[in-house]
């Protein structure tokens, strides 16, 4: 195996890596502080498109993290950036929350339900049958179908919730049209994050807790991949995949000495 360059840029997932079920992972606030003090560029990534970076900054602050707003990169931001590059100044019918609508507006998009260029599906806790029906009809009329992320379920204190991937499957079944997913495991999520902070794949590490999204995404983007065992994937489960992370550690606390 080719020896990699020293890590100069860090990308890390949020849920399962820094926080777990609303509680900080032990050592995670110290890990974030070490990244900040090192001066090395870093971004905290999330497939969740509900919240704006400012919202997430406030949520993390309540859990003891001191994270700059500009150090948070969401699937909503990546989606808006992608669409701005594909069709500048376009129009979209959006199903989602403030994290997605704010990002779309900032990218210069007009949100409309009248002959939009795109139907853009994101996360929301209030998916409505009316909105889904509208999306189906607009796609049938020729709108292109984009989804922020393929996650089938999302976490909650009460258990799993249907997420954007599940609703996208419903719309696809009704239209025969598959969406283009921008978020993880699409390596575009990683590349867009690297572009934001001027990172290079050969000297960047991606830290995640899921083999099927974080590790796969980092691998396909050419990054060093680090699986932590504080979230979804276990060490035994990681052995069942046809690809491997660069390494496995118990938690981000184990990475503090090398930053």
From TrEMBL:
Cofactor: how bound: Divalent metal ions. Mg(2+) is the most effective.
UniProt cross-references to InterPro entries, sorted A to Z: HAD-like_sf (IPR036412), HAD-SF_hydro_IIA (IPR006357), HAD_sf (IPR023214)
Family annotation (CDD domains): HAD_Pase_UmpH-like
Cofactor: Mg(2+)
Active site residues of this protein: 13, 15
SUPFAM superfamilies (alphabetical): HAD-like
Transmembrane segments: none
Sequence positions that bind substrate: 184
Keyword list, A-Z: Carbohydrate metabolism, Hydrolase, Magnesium, Metal-binding
Any one GO MF annotation of this record: metal ion binding
Similarity remark: Belongs to the HAD-like hydrolase superfamily.
Record's protein name: NagD protein
């Amino acid at each position: 195996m080719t020896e990699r360059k020293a890590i100069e840029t860090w990308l890390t997932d949020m849920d399962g890596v820094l926080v777990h079920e609303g509680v900080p992972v032990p050592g995670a606030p110290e890990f974030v502080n070490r990244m900040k003090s090192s001066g090395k560029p870093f971004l905290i990534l999330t497939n969740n498109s509900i919240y704006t970076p400012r919202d997430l900054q406030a949520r993390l602050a309540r859990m003891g993290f001191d994270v700059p707003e500009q150090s948070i990169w969401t699937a909503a931001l990546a989606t808006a950036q992608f669409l701005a590059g594909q069709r500048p100044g376009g129009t979209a019918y959006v199903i989602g929350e403030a994290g997605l609508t704010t990002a779309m507006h900032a990218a210069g998009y007009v949100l409309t339900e009248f002959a939009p260029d795109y139907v853009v599906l994101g996360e929301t806790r209030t998916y409505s049958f009316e909105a889904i029906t509208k999306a189906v009809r607009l796609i049938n009329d020729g709108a292109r179908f984009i989804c922020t992320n393929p996650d089938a379920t999302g976490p909650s204190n009460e258990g799993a919730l249907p997420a954007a991937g599940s609703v996208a499957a419903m719309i696809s079944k009704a239209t025969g049209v598959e969406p283009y997913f921008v978020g993880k495991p699409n390596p575009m999520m990683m590349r867009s994050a690297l572009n934001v902070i001027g990172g290079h794949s050969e000297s960047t590490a991606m830290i995640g807790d899921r083999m099927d999204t974080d590790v796969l995404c980092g691998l396909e983007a050419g990054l060093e991949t680090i699986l932590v065992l504080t979230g979804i994937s276990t060490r035994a489960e990681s052995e069942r995949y046809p690809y491997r992370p660069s390494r496995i550690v118990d938690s981000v606390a184990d990475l503090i000495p090398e930053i």
